[in-house]
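Our working data are protein records whose layout never changes between entries. The record below serves as our worked example for the rest of this section:
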Amino acid sequence: MRLKISLKGAVQGVGFRPFVFRLATELGLKGWVINDSSGVEIEVEGEEKALQKFLLRLNAEKPPLAHIYSQDVEYLMDVGYATFEIRESRGEGRKEVLVLPDIATCEECLRELFDPKDRRYLYPFINCTNCGPRFTIIEKLPYDRPHTTMKTFEMCPICKEEYKNPANRRFHAQPNACPVCGPWVSLYTSEGILKADRDKALKLVAKALKDGLIVAVKGIGGFHLMCDATNEEAVRLLRERKRRSEKPFAVMFRDLEQVSVYAEPTELERALLLSPERPIVLVRKRRDLASSVAPGLKRIGAFLPYSPLHHIILKSVDFPVVATSGNLSDEPIVKDNAEAIQKLSSFAHMILLHNRDIKRRCDDSVVKVIGGVPVPIRRSRGYAPMPIKLTFKLSRKVLALGGMLKNTFAIGFEDTVIISQHIGDVENLETLKTFEETVFDLMELYEFEPELVVCDLHPRYETTRWGEVFAQSRGIPLIKLQHHYTHILSCMAERGLKERVLGVAWDGTGYGEDGTLWGGEFMVCDYRGYDRVFYIKPFRLIGGERAVKEPRRVALSLLFEMYGKSASDLNNETVRSFTQDELKNLYIAWSKGINSPYSSSVGRLFDAVASLIGIRQKLSYEGQGAMILEDLYDPLVKDHYAFALEDRHIDWRPMFYELLEDREKEKVPSRFINTLAKVCLEVVLRIGVEKVCLSGGVMQNDPLVSKIREFLEKENFKVYTHQKVPPNDGGLSLGQAVYASL
């Protein structure tokens, strides 16, 4: 008999064809295997029992990086194949194969990398079918070397033999190379003058880092800016040059042992650090690195080397290094050599380039354990563009544009949503260009033409404006979807929920149907629509956007709401941060609603608390006050403040009256977070919907989510949180995709 098997999923670039070849040969079967635009196609013929064993072992023993999402099997008459062979790939047909993310260097390659007897000893581009770049080098499907940025490097005879040998783990490893035939590194001064090539360049990088210098290093998906993370002077200089006053830097450690010197990762966090995706993981500090690495915070973003080049650099120095994105403030990560010389020379003393082109930018991913489960905060390298598989099929092909901050977009078709890598905050021309470039790139890669476009409801988002122009140019419909409803749809889709849920969408801001700024929402939702059943009593943001960066303005607005004009006479940290003239003018603005829109945002309430207890009056980065409050949470504090539920409003005033009278200032953050969890419980009990979805940026707060889960599960409610996409605006594109095309 003959078996014809069609596999779809992440089945190219993972060693699937050599695996099939070895399995068929071992079982004495004849036929062939081929890569095509849909995935992998196999024909095997032989005895029925052998075919059954083949089918069973095909799934049970598949390569570790392979993901089979569908398998079509046909039993046919045999045609008399003489051998089993691996046929040349074909590219015709619909593009359905899934592109793999970039995978961290495997243990076998690492052993060779540091073996002086190996021909790839200290070669910074070592890889095999189990590891190495994928998403950032592929130009088109199917995934074969001529379709990657490695096409310009002709393999030497030894590499070619490995590439063609099905028994070798480098069989059809598309980036396969060695020092004789592959890419190499070059070190330049900040003036663009060549300093050294290859091994000498790597030695000079190590020396520069030891000497306290800043080095820009080209990696897998873009450049890092690196310096000694234990050298306060070097880190402070990097902050000055990047104009990044306090936002924490990520730190790359040589290995887990070195991480444990400076941090206290849990077992789950250790597993995440070692995972093939190699994300940045937020872990508790044990002792300080340079104080400027993560000022004012008890956590650091730690990650391990994920490319051979990183491993070589970290082995060459005896300290961890700051490894922050190589970019100008608020601009996309730099990926090209000429771009690096032009844009990074003002930051770095030296620039380490290499001549393997990066096809697409892909920043590092960030993961945090929230409520006991790993949650992506930024989903990018190592995860993108792996799809989210749905429990239903979409009726139309959709392009979902996401939001403005922490942007990702998505393409959706059938039961699949492919979310882009992290783009960033689309607030300037450079990021908008990258957004547009990346949208067209992903559409071209999958030969995808949307039938529908979805964007955020906010009229001033650049992504919304772009969507209007794009949809009009294609002559296809555009849907604008409410921000917080989208958050809940995102959680529902990734958790496979089809029935009605109660969504709790808490974040910093989002445009509401009534033209105000929402952010403290309880919504009964399904895929057809939502009912806003409860929300935080609205308060004014004095100065509009300025209030987002100055928590004291939010706190002052609450004080005006509670005490009227006499709030200016109160003796607290917020009031003291203003002059009497400022207080007078701000009261006029508040009372007359001059540039003071209404908001129901829980994120802004966090800001207000940070101001009132003197933690922050102004923010140097988004979420700073909330992050500090989270760090100050004490699980031993069990009590909470008062609040009131009136009509559909959650009245925050009783909470803030008690908070202002609280003499135990060190317990205020804990009582505030406990109160929000109690609010959740009381509203959920009133509404009575069994399944509760938590989403929005505020749901990145570990003690808050843990407390909500504890309260609700005790009352037999089922709580669903994000695990595959970020709860913040990086997850909006998934929610948009599933709503629009049902």
Notes: Residues 668-687 form the longest helix (20 residues).
